[in-house]
Design brief:
Layout: H1 18-46, E1 57-62, E2 82-87, H2 97-116, H3 121-142, H4 152-184, H5 195-213, E3 222-227, E4 232-236, E5 256-265, E6 272-284, H6 296-320, E7 331-339, H7 347-360, E8 364-366, E9 372-381, H8 396-412, H9 427-441, H10 448-476, H11 486-492, H12 499-552, H13 554-562, H14 567-592, H15 601-615, E10 620-623, H16 629-640, H17 653-659, H18 680-688, H19 693-702, H20 742-747
Parallel strand pairs: 2-3, 6-10, 7-9, 7-10
Antiparallel strand pairs: 1-2, 3-4, 4-5, 5-6, 8-9
Length: 791
């Protein structure tokens, strides 16, 4: 019998450090989420809520009121409700076409409701029925009425055509509803079929709906997906700020907590058992473009506010796993922000983010009704797109310097991390092998030069923290400059006529201190690089020795993992060993300089995020929107995480048991074809790519489009089903609200007025008959020019 995550988690090390506290609190929070996810799974199954469409996907929508009993298990409290998506064992491995069309149409209907007060409920019901009918027809056509397996090329072609057709149908019907309302309210003077009067009016109407839908997240509910074939679940909080127009709403764009896990059925009670395997924070790239904030100080301040919002989300995750007695104890967030985008046109934005992260390093603030939180932060830029190496030729100083400091911070977390092995079979054997690997990874003190650099590094970090504590007053007080006493004014030696001057002072002071820190980090990294060069050929042997122990004790390990009393502790101690392996793999890429190559950068980011989570740091990933590159890393992270309940028949038992909890060296598996070929990670990515919560999150954020994933953009996934060859997701990129070409859609709709307001609207603009009615000279004339947005 297997057991759920328990609150009595098997600690990897004794809680003697902040990192150890973080590990235990996050594990406890994940255990709570696993219990909540189990309750939601059983609720949907018990009440027969699953109505599968032709693709084999069922969606259960629960409002916040329906989630009151389970909300306590989630850090965000399910305040907007949750959508649960079940993928049947035989579901067609394709993006959820029904949900995509629904969200695209819903975004237009919601805008029509909010901007023009149109009642679109009946229209949505009608469209939903037509979506289901269309899917059934596609399945029949692609399978020759069920007489042969699904032809995915036919399915893909027909699904794209169905989406475009039904979106146009919905647009035409919205135009008809708008025209009805204008006629009913006597807003028309010319009731005519002449396109000179009618078409410009409807063009304006559709353009306005589209422009506003770019800033609109079509569904703010939390997302939970289940893949019944692989027994993998994926969870994503609902974001309130869309990623595609930063500055339209205050707050960090596309910010959510996400987690990945697995489940299985107990052999005795037949009740599912759930295990959360990893959790992390994801968000769109921080900072605002110049079109929203004109001065550098304004950009940096807004970025700092977004950083604080992320800090709060991380803090609340930790508090979710704390006991009530410890809720008020202060905590430290040790965080490396992993930037996944390095496009040519985003160099200035990255520079703004780097300045803000340095300003916030050492900031303290108090959570409402909670403890004081201190931030220790840095930024790692390893973009995973085709421009990944760009900053090595331009602005390389900033990037190398920031990456160097971030990697030093990650490596320092190893100093108080000592994996335990007492819950494993042959604990002494494991302990001896683990000690050898850890000793090779933990940096030594070095010679006098290195010792002096470490001492000066610590001293400068204290000065940086002092500057941050002074800066936090500016962050929280609107008129901080007015509250300075004469002594403080003299210290700044500035007139202090407004906050901008004070902000500029702290920015310059921060840059000055980090310039001094630069030389120390260079010495420290060179020493660690030398240590890696000395040991790099030994790591593979050390890891192989641990894998041999796993193989030799595979039967007893299997029993311990499935035992309700020992399963959790066994898994966590194996994950402690996995952290060392992740770090050795990340070192291979970082110190060799390969970590920014297009085929390796995503793997490096997944290694680093996995490592940070296990050792007790709080990692986050972010790209321009965190819908595409962020999704790639999330998919890899889910595949790399330990899945103790997954039994892959295609994977040899020994390999499956060993690599199920110990990471594979994906970065060094390249054959004649591609990186990761034949690995368990690639196999899992193929199995779960279409059912991952990140797909639904992207659909919500873009109002209808899945992640833009294609092998030409992300070579690391070129062996993954759905990315290889056809690129099912990438072909929908033009359906995203911010990418949609409205001209093509409007041109395909014959925008002509209705004959009779009682007549049902016709599809695709079939003309409705003769010209009815005459004009009324007293009514306002329709302006053929495009009106202003303010209606």
């Amino acid at each position: 019998m297997m057991s759920d995550n328990r609150r009595r988690v098997g600690a990897v090390v004794a809680p003697v450090s902040e990192h150890a506290n973080t590990r235990n609190e996050v594990l406890s929070a994940e255990a709570k989420m696993a219990r909540g996810i189990k309750i939601l799974y059983l609720f949907a199954k018990k009440h027969n809520l699953l109505k599968y469409d032709a693709q084999g996907i069922a969606t259960v929508e629960l409002s916040a009121n329906q989630c009151t009993n389970v909300a306590k298990y989630f850090p965000g409290g399910l305040t907007k409700g949750i959508n649960i998506h079940f993928h049947r064992e035989d579901f067609i491995p394709y993006p959820p076409i029904r949900y995509m069309i629904q969200q695209k149409i819903k975004s237009f209907c919601d805008m029509a409701r909010d901007l023009y007060q149109l009642d679109c409920k009946a229209l949505m019901v009608r469209m939903n029925n037509e979506i289901l009918e269309g899917l059934e027809n596609i399945k029949k056509k692609a399978s020759n009425n069920g007489n042969k397996p699904i032809d995915m090329k036919i399915f893909h072609k027909e699904a794209q055509a169905l989406m475009k057709k039904l979106v146009r149908v919905a647009m035409k019907r919205l135009c008809d509803e708008y025209y009805k309302k204008l006629k009913k309210n006597d807003k028309l003077s010319v009731f005519t079929q002449d396109e000179f009067f009618y078409k410009p009016l409807m063009d304006n109407f559709l353009d306005h709906l589209h422009e506003e839908s770019v800033h609109y997240r079509s569904n703010e509910r939390d997302i939970l997906t289940f893949n019944e074939k692989t027994k993998i679940f994926s969870y994503d909080e609902g974001s309130r700020v869309t990623a595609h127009d930063k500055g339209y709403k205050p707050g960090c764009p596309n910010l959510t907590l996400a987690c990945e896990g697995s489940y299985a059925t107990s052999s005795t009670s037949h009740k599912p058992v759930f295990q959360t395997n990893t959790s992390y924070i994801k968000h769109a790239q921080l900072g605002l473009t110049v079109k929203y904030k004109k001065t550098e100080e304004e950009q940096v301040m807004e970025t700092c506010r977004q950083i604080r919002e992320i800090m709060e989300r991380m803090a609340y995750l930790r508090l979710h796993g704390r006991s009530i007695a410890d809720r008020k104890k202060p905590l430290t967030i040790d965080w490396v922000y992993q930037v996944l985008t390095t496009n040519v046109n985003e160099g200035s934005l990255y520079g703004c983010v780097a300045k803000a992260m340095k300003l916030m390093n050492g900031v303290q603030f108090k959570l409402p009704g909670g403890p004081f939180v201190t931030l220790n932060t840095s930024v790692m830029n390893a973009g995973i797109n085709e421009w990944g190496n760009w900053n090595f030729f331009r602005k390389s100083d900033t990037q190398r310097r920031e990456n160097r400091r971030a990697y030093i911070q990650c490596t320092d977390a190893l100093k108080d991390f000592v994996p335990k092995t007492d819950a494993l079979p042959n604990p002494n054997g494991f302990a001896a092998k683990v000690k050898i690997l850890r000793d090779a990874l933990v940096p030594g003190t070095g010679d006098r030069k290195v010792t002096a650099a470490l001492k000066e590094y610590k001293r400068l970090q204290e000065k940086i923290a002092k500057n941050a504590k002074q800066f936090q007053i500016v962050l929280t007080e609107q008129d901080a400059h007015k509250k300075l006493n004469p002594k403080e004014r003299a210290q700044y030696e500035l007139s202090m006529e407004d906050n901008a001057e004070l902000i500029k002072f702290h920015m310059e002071e921060s840059e000055r201190l980090y310039d001094l820190l630069r030389h120390q980090t260079y010495i420290i990294e060179n020493h660690r690089l030398e240590q890696w060069e000395k040991n790099k050929n030994k790591f593979k042997h050390y890891i192989h020795e641990i894998e041999k122990l796993v193989f030799q004790n595979r039967n007893e390990l299997d029993e311990k993992l499935r035992d309700p009393h020992t399963g959790m502790a066994t898994q966590q101690q194996l994950l402690g060993i996995a952290a060392l392996i992740y770090k050795s793999y990340a070192d291979d890429l970082y110190y060799s300089g390969k970590y920014r190559k297009p085929e390796q950068a995503a793997i490096f980011n997944a290694y680093l995020l996995s490592y940070q989570k296990i050792v007790g740091m709080m990692g986050s990933v972010g790209c321009k929107s965190c819908n595409d590159r962020g999704f790639v890393v999330r998919l890899l992270l889910s595949a790399m995480a330990g899945h103790p309940f997954v039994d892959d028949a295609s994977i040899p038992k020994a390999k499956q048991l060993g690599f199920n909890l110990l990471p594979e060296p994906c970065h060094s598996m390249k054959t004649n074809d591609h990186v990761m070929q034949g690995t368990l990670v690639e196999h899992r990515c193929s199995e779960n790519i279409m059912s991952h919560a990140g797909v639904y999150s992207c659909i919500n954020d873009t109002a209808g489009a899945p992640p833009k994933i294609a092998q030409k953009k992300f070579s690391v996934l070129q062996g993954v089903e759905g990315v290889r060859d056809s690129g099912y997701m990438y072909d929908y990129r033009r359906m995203a609200a911010h990418k949609m070409e409205m001209g093509k859609f409007k041109d395909a709709i014959a925008l002509t007025p209705l004959i009779s307001l009682a007549a049902s609207p016709t599809l695709f603009g079939a003309r409705d008959g003769a010209r009815p009615g005459s004009s009324d000279s007293k009514s306002p004339q329709i302006n053929a020019r495009k009106p202003k947005k303010s209606l």
